[in-house]
TrEMBL record:
GO terms for molecular function: acyltransferase activity, transferring groups other than amino-acyl groups. InterPro entries: AB_hydrolase_fold (IPR029058), Esterase-like (IPR000801), Mycobacterial_A85_antigen (IPR050583). This is Esterase family protein. Pfam families: Esterase. It comes from the Bacteria.
Amino acid sequence: MHTARAFRPLKFLALFLASLFGLCVSIPGWAFQTRVVSIPSAAMHRAFGATVVLPDDYARSSGATRYPVIYVLHGSGGNHADWTSNTRIGKLADRYHVMLVMPDGGRESWYIDSPFDPASRYETYVGTEVVSYIDAHFRTLASRERRAITGLSMGGFGALRIALDHQETFGAAGSISGAVDPRNCDDEPGIERVFGDPARHADFWTRNAIVEGASSFEHAHIALTIDCGVSDYFVQSNRVLHDKLIALGVPHDYVERPGGHTWSYWSNAIRYQVLFFATAFRHDGWRPFAQKA
C-alpha cells in the first residue's frame, strides 16, 4: 500500500521526468465511486440510506462483469456514512475489485429482530432486504461464496449474528472490536429497548450472545475472521470466543493488535479483513480453510 508520505515524492518524480524527457506517464490513483442509495424495508415500512462503494473498473467493465460484495456494518450511535467519513475504505474496493455496501443499522438496533420492539427488524432488513436490493440494482456475484459481512463493535456482533442466521446468504464473516457478548453492554443506552430487561429476559440475552453460540459455527462453513485491539474493553470476550472456537475445532482467523476502541484501530483492521475476504472469494468461500474432520 502506498502511504500519502511515500506516494507524493514518487508522483512528483514521475511528473518531473515526464516534463524533462517529454514522456507520457500514468500516475496511479484511486477512482472508486461512492453512491448513497435509499433502500426500502417492508419489514419496517420505511426506507434507509446506504453507502455503496464501487471499484473503478465497475463503470469501465462490460455489463457481463459482476463483483463480489462485502457488507460493512457501523457501530452503535452511528450510521451508514461512518466508514467512508472516518476511513479510506473506498481504496479497498479498487485494490481488491469488490463492492462495499454500508447499510444503516439504526443507532442502537444491534442488528436483531427485536421481540420487545416490533418496529426494530434490522436483522431482516440487513440480512435479507438490503442484500436483495443490492443484487437487483448492481452487478453482483449473487452467491454466498461471493458475499461477506463484517462490522465494528455493535456491527461486529450484528455481522456474526446475521451470518449465523443467514448461512445461505453469507459465506464469510468478520468482526472488528465486536461486542460478542452483549451481556457486558447492559449499561449501553437504548440496548434494553431491543434486548429487553437484562434481569427479566436474561435467557434472551444469553441466547443471542455470540460467545454462547460458538458451537453454531462448527458446521456453518463460514470463512471467519475476528479482530480486536489489546486495549479494547471487548478484548476479553473476544478471547473467550476465540478459545471456544479453538476447542470446537472451528477454522478461523483471530488477531489482536495494539490499540483500543477507536477509528484509528478500525481503519487499520478493515484493510486486513477485506484482504481476508478477497482471498476467500478467490477460493470459493471457505475452501482455503481446512475443515474439521
